[in-house]
Design a protein that fits this description.
Elements (H helix, E strand, L loop, with lengths): L6 H16 L6 H8 L3 H7 L3 H21 L8 H18 L1 H10 L9 H26 L9 H11 L6 H16 L5
Helix pairs in contact: 1-2, 1-4, 1-6, 4-5, 4-7, 5-7, 5-9, 7-8, 8-9
Length: 189
Amino acid sequence: MRAKLSSRERIIRAARKAFAERGHDGVSMSEIAQMAGVKKALIYYYFPSKEDLFYEVWQYSIDELEDHVFSETSDENVYVSKLKRILRSYIDFITSKNEIKKIMDQERANLSREDNESWKRVRDRYEALKEKLSSAINDAKAAQEISKDVDPDSAADLILNGFSITEDPDGLESIREIIWRGLFSNSGE
């Protein structure tokens, strides 16, 4: 498998694994190079800093999450069905992509960092995902398919953050049900 992946791809995958295991601050570029089977200088050829590498891992991970969650719903016009699919896809993704879930959970606190341009880009990418989710919720609200009292931004925050409480499938299903009921309270559903 290693021969089929580009060096850049191997670096990103090794970094994702390392960041998931020990967080951004807990891993060195030397460790990532060793895991990827490349020289540390090659990492710096592709990524000028650890923050730039982390941003690339984050971007790659969020793209994968976004594609998984929204790809099957892009043509869906019934907003209730669309939201159900989004929630189920999100749970499916975070249970099957444990590394990405760990990175998101561990680094959520760093999203407020202002000390580095890469961290601002990490936050902006997360906010773009949240906005896409909020927009789907707002569409359902505008179509009067969910409660008029739902704040789309808060609901999107709850979805992105609420599932980090547990990894237990039953617990995740309970959280999904709580979110679902909140979306439909006072809506006739």
